[in-house]
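Quick question, first post here. What does this chain look like in 3D?
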Amino acid sequence: MLIHEHVLLMGMEHTFDYRPDFFAKKTVDDAAAGLNALKSFVRPSALAGKQGTVGR
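> Answer (accepted):
Ran it through. Tokens below.
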């Protein structure tokens, strides 16, 4: 299996209309925590040389 990424772009008008909570601190913190949790599924060698965590 090949590892790959998906990048989704969302217009700001859509964000304001359908995700009013998008910029709330809790939403951002939850998203960052979820992305950091994903790191536990990645081989350490795949992250070699990449420092830091996702979030504010």
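The helical segments are 12-18, 25-38.
Residues 25-38 form the longest helix (14 residues).
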